């Protein structure tokens, strides 16, 4: 999410905007940064008109979460083996959505994305499958989704990755937002959140999550500042032996680097 690399669109996106005054709009509509792409070494990257990477897909392995932080967003698997309902706030390249849809055949997977262009590019360029009996992609505001009474106490897993083009921190970060996320979870529910460790938003988000959740732990920082936080609706014991055994099973089943997650949790 927060990896800075040169985009093939850099020169185009850095040109100064025209100084001509725009025609007055009849109705105010949401303004989104342009969705742009780059490719390098067999990996396709998503940008929002800047150098900041918003997601990635290895073209030969479209369902694999390519970026390390995206793999860490699956760390809830250490506590939940067969969730029935999983939701993703912020679609990105649909990496988490595709992986969950492919890995958990008995789970309902919902993705929430505000920008219709992101949904379209995921379908055309990032192998997002069409909606089916187990997959639903909603074009809506994540805040509206978590505040919908119909979603209360329905999710075992909530994955939150909400950044704009400037990558200045999550766009939703208040205690009220995280309380609404908590309300969506079942009693054993777990939330993972992509944060930016080297930014003032990090402390603000952690404080808000600790206000809303019984327990919050963080994995070690990766990439250029990504830190994945894990928030539990109820307190969980951190048992090294139990987590190590579960991690070994995750590695065998999925090849995700779950042993490193446990090491990061235990040594913190």
Can you lay out the helices and strands and say which pair or pack?
Layout (H helix, E strand, L loop, with lengths): L2 E2 L5 H4 L22 E5 L2 E5 L4 E7 L9 H5 L12 E5 L5 H9 L4 E6 L2 H10 L9 E5 L2 H6 L7 E6 L14 H10 E12 L3 H13 L2 E4 L7 E7 L7 H15 L3 H9 L2
Parallel strand pairs: 5-6, 5-8, 6-7, 8-9
Antiparallel strand pairs: 1-4, 2-3, 3-4, 9-11, 10-11
Q: How many E-type strands?
A: 11
N- and C-termini, Cα separation: 23 Å
Uncertain residue segments: 1-21
Please state the average pLDDT score.
88
Strand content: 15-25%
Q: From the helix content, strand content and strand pairing, which structural class follows?
A: alpha/beta
Spatial extent as radius of gyration: 18 Å
Please give the share of residues in helix.
25-40%
Assembly category: single chain
Largest β sheet strand count, sense and barrel closure: 7 strands, mixed
Strand order of the largest sheet: 7-6-5-8-9-11-10
Order of helices and strands: EHEEEHEHEHEHEHEHEEHH
Helix segment count?
9
Which geometry do the CA atoms define?
A: globular
Features:
alpha/beta; 268 residues; four-stranded antiparallel sheet; 9 helices; globular; seven-stranded mixed sheet
How would you describe this structure to a colleague?
It is a single chain. The chain is an alpha/beta fold. The chain is built from nine helices and eleven strands. The chain has helices spanning 10-13, 68-72, 95-103, 116-125, 142-147, 175-184, 200-212, 240-254, 258-266; strands at residues 3-4, 36-40, 43-47, 52-58, 85-89, 108-113, 135-139, 155-160, 185-196, 215-218, 226-232. It has a seven-stranded mixed beta sheet with strand order 7-6-5-8-9-11-10, sandwiched between helices. A four-stranded antiparallel beta sheet has the order 1-4-3-2, with no helix packed on it. Helix 6 links the parallel strand 8 and strand 9 (185-196). Helix 6 packs across helix 7 and helix 8 (240-254) packs antiparallel against helix 9 (258-266).
């Amino acid at each position: 999410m927060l990896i800075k690399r040169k985009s093939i669109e850099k020169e185009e996106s850095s040109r100064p905007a025209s100084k001509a005054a725009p025609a007055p709009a009849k109705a105010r509509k949401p303004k989104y940064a342009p969705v742009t792409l780059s490719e390098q070494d067999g990996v396709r990257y998503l940008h929002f008109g800047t150098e900041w990477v918003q997601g990635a897909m290895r073209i030969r392995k479209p369902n694999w979460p390519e970026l390390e932080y995206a793999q860490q967003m699956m760390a809830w698997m250490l506590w939940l083996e067969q969730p029935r309902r999983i939701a993703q706030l912020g679609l990105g390249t649909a990496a988490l959505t595709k992986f969950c849809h492919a890995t958990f055949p008995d789970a309902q997977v919902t993705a929430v994305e505000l920008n219709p262009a992101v949904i379209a590019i995921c379908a055309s360029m990032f192998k997002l499958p069409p909606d089916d009996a187990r997959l639903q992609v909603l074009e809506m505001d994540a805040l509206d989704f978590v505040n919908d009474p119909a979603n209360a106490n329905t999710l075992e897993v909530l994955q939150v990755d909400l950044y704009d083009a400037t990558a200045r921190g999550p766009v939703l970060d208040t205690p009220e937002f995280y309380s609404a996320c908590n309300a969506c979870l079942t009693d054993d529910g777990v939330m993972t959140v992509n944060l930016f460790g080297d930014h003032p938003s990090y402390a603000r988000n952690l404080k808000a999550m600790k206000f809303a959740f019984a327990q919050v732990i963080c994995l070690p920082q990766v990439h250029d500042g990504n830190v994945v936080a894990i928030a539990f609706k109820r307190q969980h014991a951190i048992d090294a032996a139990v987590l190590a055994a579960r991690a070994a099973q995750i590695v065998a089943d999925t090849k995700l680097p779950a042993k490193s997650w446990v090491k990061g949790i235990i040594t913190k």
